[in-house]
Write a structure and sequence with these properties.
The chain is α+β, with helices and mostly antiparallel strands. The protein has 2 helices and 3 strands; from the N terminus they run αβαββ. Strands 1-2-3 form a 3-stranded antiparallel β-sheet. The longest helix has 17 residues, at 3-19.
Length: 66
């Protein structure tokens, strides 16, 4: 599996976990539609006048024991 595919799967896992908070979670495509000048944000949570932006990064470990 390519690093890009693993990264996409990782983003999906993060999104599913964030949904468990009960808050409205914006995904990258929704963020770009709503805020066209914002890029490189994978998830955004807005609640109680707070905005939390998350950018996921998958990095393959160089340690073969991981």
């Amino acid at each position: 599996m390519s690093a890009q595919t693993i990264g996409i799967l990782f983003e999906e896992k993060v999104h599913k976990q964030l949904l468990k908070t009960g808050q409205h979670i914006y995904r990258e495509a929704d963020i770009r539609k709503e805020y066209p000048n914002i890029t490189a944000i994978d998830h955004m949570i807005i609640f109680d006048n707070v905005c939390i932006c998350i950018q996921d990064k998958y990095q393959q470990s160089k340690n073969t024991n991981d």
